[in-house]
Write a structure and sequence with these properties.
- This protein has 707 residues and is an alpha/beta fold.
- Helix content is 23%, strand content 32%.
- It contains 18 helices and 37 strands.
- The strands form six sheets. Strands 12, 13, 14, 15, 16, 17, 18, 19, 20, 21 and 22 form an eleven-stranded mixed sheet that branches. Strands 3, 4, 7, 8, 9, 10 and 11 form a seven-stranded antiparallel sheet that branches. The chain has a seven-stranded parallel sheet with strand order 25-24-23-26-27-28-29, sandwiched between helices.
- 31% of the residues are buried.
- Residues 540-552 and 577-581 have low confidence and may be disordered.
Length: 707
């Protein structure tokens, strides 16, 4: 890796040679004074730390250069087994309660070319750059290392590519004769096409990344792709690319296929390229890009229609104008002006999870008012992208941020929401804002959070904005005394707290009948003869694609669950509303069902014989049913100590066993029928569920709307 100047917390050089990892990095030396400093490998998911000493080798004004050499055979060969490791500098000082960790940044080089093989475990350890530009290390099963470095899409539609690919087992013995093919697949059918590639020498890679046991002179390739040969009449096709290497070893022909090829260019100009090409199927638009999440090379070929293209451009321009600062300012001014007009009596606007769902406490309150107090005019604020969740319910929907929404929201007598509204919306003086919130707190909230790891904000800004919005709330619903104390402090809330139980949980008492449970299973198309597991985990603040879109790596081994429990159980998955993953459950057909987009989790609680969760507040609600719960907490150390922190000793007070592996989850499921609810569960129930009786909606409506 080339030296990259003096950038605070940036790695300047890495090398791996004969199971020795060498790291050189830059850090502000003033931060290290009077502190005990160590280099920390933090195992993702488990939070297990490995600490190493490092030493100073140079000083440059405010910056120091530091280095460390680490044996990859340390700690009982822990690096040999599949895992991801993030790298930090940890600082501890006298009198400081907590250590501070500083994440080390990558300098963007081809880190994957620094690798080490572990033949016994058939794994490989290598460095890589995360989506956020940080340095991490990964141990995976051995595979081809291959990347595309350059692409050029011509106006005629031909694509020139170049990159490198090799079997890491070659080391210094790279075969002189190799055949390299680009394998092309698509999303429409199972066809595979091969393009013969030319080999080229890569002395530059050897100079930069070569070691005493790695040589990269013969690993390069380049070639031309004519996609017109593989087109068909489909209006939209996505092409994916792989590298096939054919070579001889000891007289035997070997054929290796790489994982999907990534495209990581140093020149951002080439990461997105477009052109329009005539074909026998009409004009086609080629769009070449590196995908956002995984940086895969992807080429999208779609029908080109000039009128549709023009409409799309105009629509896009209007969307950008709507999101501009000037548009927001004008909208805010209009809202403020309309808010000074006389309000519309008995008008209520409901919103759940940013307009995405017809669910939770707002739904329960809405349905109670609709049934018992028809004199109220009720509206739902709905995100346009989620209109389908509200259709066929006889609901008066108002598209969020539309002109109609502006007039309706600004003159409504009541707002009812379970999450924060945008900060720039001014609340009229006559509007009563009922904040229902959406869970009993286990994780630290708002002002109680030590650090915020969410995208698009920082700790100070997040707390400031949260407290500013909560100052608009006139009423706040609390499910119990425990929550009331936390809400008042964490939200800075000093107005009327309604300690009533949660309205959404009324259904767990009023609808928990055998006939209703059978009807729900039939509605969902689930087998009646099998027991149902509900897996409902929460999101991780530091795993995200962007603002409001969070990653979730499914650590629970569904195939193992299916093999061990599939004769007796099925599993229903319900991801958090902020998680952006689309789960592919095809391999688990008939066993695993994705209900992440189903808005009413209460119905999923009712049909579930057992809940599997982690740190999600769903277990406080599910506890009302007095059924078994298992807590799958594979990353509890990281979540507890780094991301959020808990309000109570979760490991001691959890109303069910804690599991860190899929095998442990399976064992606890098998024991569930034989394990009666114990004294620990009863203590939990009496602390958190004592107010729930099926009448919370009535209590809230009488307090806010009828008093």
């Amino acid at each position: 890796m080339s030296e990259s100047g003096f950038v605070h917390k940036q790695v300047q050089k890495i090398s791996i040679d004969h199971n020795q990892l060498y790291i050189k990095f830059c850090f502000k030396h003033g931060l290290l004074e009077g502190k005990q400093a160590t280099l920390v490998f933090l195992q993702r998911n488990t939070g297990r730390p490995l600490n190493y000493d490092f030493k100073q080798i140079a000083l440059h004004e405010d910056y120091g250069t530091y280095e460390a050499t680490i044996s990859l055979h340390d700690h009982d060969n822990l690096f040999h087994h599949t895992a991801v490791w993030d790298m930090y500098v940890s600082l501890e000082g006298e009198g400081e309660e907590e250590e501070k960790k500083h994440r080390l940044k990558s300098n963007g080089a081809e880190l994957e070319l620094y690798y080490c093989l572990f033949p016994k475990e058939e794994t490989m350890f290598f460095a890589y750059t995360t989506n956020k530009g940080n340095l991490s290390f990964k141990t995976t099963k051995q595979r081809i290392i291959a990347n595309i470095e350059e692409t050029y899409l011509s106006k005629e539609g031909s694509i020139r590519i170049s990159g490198y690919g090799f079997d890491p087992n070659w080391g210094m013995n790279v075969p002189a004769v190799q055949e390299k093919n680009l394998v092309i697949t698509n999303n429409i059918n199972d066809e595979q096409h091969k393009v013969i590639l030319e080999s080229n020498t890569r002395n530059d890679l050897t100079e930069m990344y070569g070691t005493s046991n790695h040589n990269f002179d013969l690993v390069g390739f380049e070639g031309n792709i004519d996609l017109s040969k593989y087109l068909n009449n489909d209006p939209l096709i996505y092409y994916r690319f792989y590298l096939e290497i054919v070579y001889e070893e000891n007289g035997e022909t070997k054929r290796l296929l790489s994982p999907r090829l990534k495209f990581q260019s140093y020149n951002p100009k080439y990461l997105k390229q477009k052109t329009i090409v005539p074909s026998v199927y009409g004009k086609k638009r080629y769009f070449l890009k590196s995908t956002v999440k995984k940086q895969f090379l992807s080429i999208r070929v779609s029908d080109y229609n000039a009128k549709k293209e023009l409409k799309a451009r105009i629509k896009g321009k209007l969307q950008r104008m709507k999101r501009s600062k000037k548009a927001k300012l004008l909208y805010k001014l209009a809202f403020t002006f309309l808010g000074k007009l006389p309000f519309k009596k008995n008008t209520v606007v409901f919103e759940s999870f940013l307009g995405k769902q017809y669910s939770c406490n707002p739904r329960a309150i809405y349905e109670y008012i609709k049934e018992h107090h028809p004199e109220y005019k009720l509206y739902w604020s709905v995100d346009k992208r989620y209109m389908q969740n509200f259709e066929n319910r006889e609901i008066d929907m108002v598209p969020r941020f539309s002109v109609r929404w502006l007039f309706t929201m600004s003159r409504a007598q009541y707002w009812v929401s379970n999450s924060r509204l945008p900060l720039w919306i001014p609340k009229p003086k006559y509007t009563t804002y009922l904040q229902t919130w959406h869970g009993t707190p286990l994780k630290r909230l708002a002002a109680d959070m030590d650090e915020v790891h969410m995208p698009g904000t920082n700790t100070e800004k997040y707390k400031r904005n949260f407290l500013k919005e909560s100052s608009n709330w006139d009423y706040l619903i609390s499910p119990n005394k425990y929550s009331s104390d936390i809400f008042a402090r964490a939200f800075g809330f000093h107005k009327t707290m309604i300690e009533s139980g949660y309205p959404r949980n009324d259904a767990l008492f009023n609808d928990n009948t055998e006939d209703n449970l059978i009807a729900l299973k039939e509605k969902f198309g689930l087998p009646l003869e099998k027991k149902i597991l509900l897996y409902a985990p929460t999101w991780r603040d530091d795993q995200f694609y962007g603002k409001g879109k969070y990653k979730f790596d499914l650590e629970l081994d569904l195939m193992k669950l299916k093999e061990e429990l599939g004769d007796e159980y099925i599993i229903v998955l319900r991801m958090h509303y902020l998680v952006a993953e689309n789960l592919d459950l095809t391999p688990y057909s008939g066993f695993a069902y994705d209900f992440s987009n189903y808005e009413d989790i209460r119905e999923l609680y009712l049909i579930a014989d057992l809940l599997i969760t982690d740190y999600s507040s769903v277990f406080f609600d599910y506890g009302n049913l007095r059924r078994p719960m298992i807590f799958y907490v594979y990353d509890i150390e990281s979540y507890r100590d780094k991301l959020r922190g808990f309000y109570f000793d979760f490991e001691k007070m959890a109303p069910g066993p804690l599991a860190k592996t899929t095998d442990e989850v399976i064992d606890y499921i098998r024991q569930a029928d034989a394990m009666p609810l114990n004294e620990q569960f009863e203590q939990f129930y009496n602390m958190f569920c004592y107010l729930e009786d099926g009448e919370a909606s009535k209590r809230v409506v009488e307090e806010v709307f009828l008093k």
